[in-house]
Design a protein that fits this description.
CATH class of one domain: Mainly Beta
Structural class: mainly beta
CATH topology of one domain: Jelly Rolls
Largest sheet: 16 strands, parallel
Radius of gyration: 29 Å
Distance between the termini: 35 Å
Strand order of the largest sheet: 1-3-5-8-11-13-15-17-21-23-25-28-31-34-37-40
Helix content: under 10%
Number of strands: 59
Number of helices: 6
């Protein structure tokens, strides 16, 4: 990032002013320096490029108030510029105490406001929506691994440099951020080494990264903020990875913070916290052993420690409601933790965690393996799970301990976890859970009195787990500690119509806000494509090119646009949707074909024996005709195949095979062949191999090939193998670029 340079031109030096009649400055050019309190007006539709990337507005005085006139907008990019091209900074403040920035709209920048070494900074009533954000390659069918975030390093401004942030504040204590709004950005507010801040009454929702992100920031009070729909890596019913997006991120030794009465729903995680790289190294190397006496044991602890999470809503996350790991003495009290896809709370390798008085329900419907349900904790100690209400979770409480820990954590575990003692479960209520308790490994759990009703199974415990029952432990009544709360809003429960993960709809630039118009592809069935048009006040105008058979149905605010073709071949289309200022274009193609799909099982290794695999089949081969390869009938046929003769029960020694062929007319030109599949796959057109990924099975991925056609009919052949279980494959043909 460019260092701040205060130019000699465009400097605004204003005399003393009466507080109720501040002078007005008309902002017209880059590198404007403000040295006195003032009001700022900006001509309508003005775009101010930060040409040298050091800030359009430079605040160069302490103890001043800068207020934007009503309707003033500081815009750093053209209206139609892609959001991943936004650069520069709207307002830059360096080394100034007690500055207040109030009002205005700041958009189109890498950071709308970037403040460094500014104790006492106050930011209020700012709308910094539409900040820099990445284009997301994940779509409804498949997750793109390149969309994952990496919050693990930020001592060299990695968050700002790699991702951007609508508001970024560093090395500034006792700041206030209130009544601000950031939608449609990647990261809303990043606090880097900020202590004793008050952050409240903000709406940092519908972003594709982090709502509020803390780095080495302690003793802050974060209350009554809406941090909903900070999400990526999600397609309902298809994948739910979250990709390290979160409503609230706490990385690298963020301790003694109060997080209260916030709505943190529909995130990648609700809260994602971790001790940090340095914390892991310091704890593991501090004297090399655990000191129990002389008060030194607490000094050795460094992580995201002693944080109070109270009366928040951490629901409907793609992954975890709360993930806070490798940390000490955190308290999760009276929170709502409902409907998270993997688990409500994941607190691996932490200790001294108090989980008390929470509502923990309906978690784990899309868990990964044994990590699922209400509370999941790996290799930890001194945890107290007391007085919570569990209901309808895939598993209520799952605790496990690894005799052979992950090698990457071994030093930390040796230094920080002298035993598996002190885990207590008492006074909890379990109702309708699939499994109430699951214990694995050589740990110790003390079970007090817990109410278990209407669960499918009460307990699954490994022989090496030490269970101690003590009916004297019934769980104390839940009396919440006093805690500071700032703000007048009440965001918890304020969006009831959006309850549930099914309302997470991802676009190429982030989550849909359920307020602005949306054109969203629904089912595609060979020669038919359906688009959902939502939140249109008036009937939209639709222009369709390339497909004659189309129909717009419905009434405001929701419509359905259906495209259809019945003639064999590939039918490219372009759809333009307009309504007022809204304009959206969608391109694609309909593939009308009849596939002959042969399904079989193979005993052997398709990678090492490709010729034998190609000749496989036999009497158990099932051949069906379908209009598309991802027809459910194909998967049903694969699943119904018997195990091949001579095959081992070890699924790694056998595979499911698919060989499908169709003849399709192609017009002269360049075409993209796009296939989405797991396992090994190869595609040929007219005998020319255009996709060759014949390799051992991995996750589903999108593969693209190129074919230059002359006019005529070509043979299209798709081959796929999957080892562990049969998986669907889909294929599209699109006009080439």
């Amino acid at each position: 990032m460019a260092a701040l340079v205060l130019p000699a031109v465009c400097t605004v030096c204003l005399g003393l002013w009466v507080a109720d009649d501040p002078p007005v400055v008309t902002l017209r050019s880059d590198d404007t320096v403000i040295t006195q309190s003032c009001r700022i007006e900006i001509p309508p539709n003005l775009m101010l490029l930060d040409s040298n990337r050091d800030g359009v507005v430079h605040v160069a005085a302490a103890d001043i108030v800068i207020e934007f006139e009503r309707g003033a907008q500081l815009r750093g990019a053209e209206r139609d510029a892609p959001p991943d091209t936004y650069e520069g900074f709207g307002i830059r403040v360096v080394g100034q105490r007690n500055v207040t920035v109030r009002g205005g709209r700041i958009s189109g920048f890498r950071a709308g406001l970037w403040a460094t070494d500014c104790p006492g900074l106050t930011l209020e009533n700012i709308d910094a929506s539409d900040g820099r954000r990445a284009h997301l390659d994940s779509d409804a069918e498949i997750e793109a691994e390149g969309d994952w975030l990496s919050p693990h390093h930020n001592d060299d401004h990695e968050w700002l440099r790699n991702y951007g942030s609508s508001i970024y504040v560093e090395r500034s204590d006792r700041i206030v951020v209130r009544n601000c709004r950031v939608w449609h950005s990647q990261n809303a507010l990043c606090l880097d080494r900020v202590n004793e801040a008050r952050v409240y009454d903000n709406d940092f929702s519908f972003n594709s990264g982090w709502g509020i992100a803390l780095w080495r920031s302690c003793r802050n009070v974060i209350t009554r903020n809406a941090l909903d729909f900070c999400i990526r890596g999600y397609s309902h019913g298809v994948y739910n990875r979250g990709q390290d997006a979160a409503g609230l991120l706490m990385f690298e030794q963020d301790s003694d913070n109060v997080i209260a009465e916030n709505s943190v729903t529909h995130g990648g995680d609700g809260l994602f916290g971790w001790a940090g790289e340095e914390a892991m190294r310091r704890t593991a190397t501090h004297f090399g052993f655990w000191i129990l006496d002389f008060g030194l044991s607490r000094a050795m602890r460094c992580g995201a420690d002693r944080n109070l999470l109270i009366r928040n809503d951490f629901s409907y996350a793609a992954a975890h409601g709360i993930e806070l790991t490798f940390s000490f003495d955190n308290q999760f009290l009276a929170n709502r933790i409902v409907g998270n896809a993997i688990c409500g709370i994941w607190a691996g390798y932490s200790q001294g965690t108090l989980i008390r008085g929470n509502e923990i329900a309906d978690n784990g419907a899309a868990g990964y393996g044994l990590e699922r349900g209400g509370v999941n904790i790996d290799s930890s100690r001194q945890n107290r799970i007391i007085g919570n209400k569990f209901s309808r979770n895939a598993c209520g409480v799952h605790l496990w301990w690894q005799a052979k820990p992950n090698p990457g954590f071994a030093d930390w575990i040796a230094a920080s976890l002298p035993d598996w003692e002190g885990n207590v479960l008492a006074g909890n209520e379990f109702r309708g859970d699939e499994l109430a308790f699951h214990f694995r490994g050589p740990g110790k759990v003390v079970l007090g009195t817990n109410a278990v009703r209407d669960v499918r199974r009460e307990m699954e415990a490994a022989p090496e787990t030490r269970l101690v029952r003590d009916d004297r432990l019934a769980g104390e009544s839940v009396e919440l500690p006093s805690f500071p709360v700032f703000g007048q809003t009440h965001p918890v429960g304020a969006r009831p119509e959006l309850a549930g993960r099914e309302h997470i709809i991802m676009t190429e630039w982030g989550p849909w806000d359920h307020a602005t118009p949306l054109v969203w592809p629904l089912e595609s069935t060979g020669g038919r494509q359906t688009l959902s048009l939502r939140q249109f006040g008036n009937r939209p105008s639709c222009t369709v090119e390339g497909v004659a058979d189309w129909k717009l149905a419905g009434a405001g605010p929701e419509y359905t646009l259906t495209l259809a073709a019945d003639k064999s071949g590939v039918h490219p289309y372009r759809v333009a949707v307009e309504s007022g200022e809204f304009q959206r274009e969608v391109r694609g193609a309909l593939l009308v074909a009849e596939w002959q799909a042969s399904c079989f099982r193979f005993a052997g290794d398709p990678v090492e024996e490709p010729d034998r695999w190609a000749a496989a089949g036999g009497p158990d081969t099932r051949t069906i005709r379908v209009s598309r390869l991802d027809d459910p009938d194909v998967l049903d046929e694969l699943k119904a195949l018997p195990q091949p003769a001579g095959a081992s029960a070890d699924s790694a020694k056998q595979s499911w095979g698919l060989s499908a062929r169709t003849d399709v007319p192609l017009k002269r030109g360049v075409w993209q062949i796009v296939v989405v599949a797991a396992g090994g796959v190869r595609v040929s057109v007219a005998g020319e191999k255009v996709i060759d990924a014949w390799e051992r099975p991995g996750p589903a991925r999108r593969l693209t090939g190129r074919y230059e056609a002359g006019d005529g009919t070509v043979a299209l052949v798709v081959e796929q193998f999957a080892a562990r279980r049969p998986t669907p494959v889909s294929l599209r043909i699109l006009p080439g670029k």
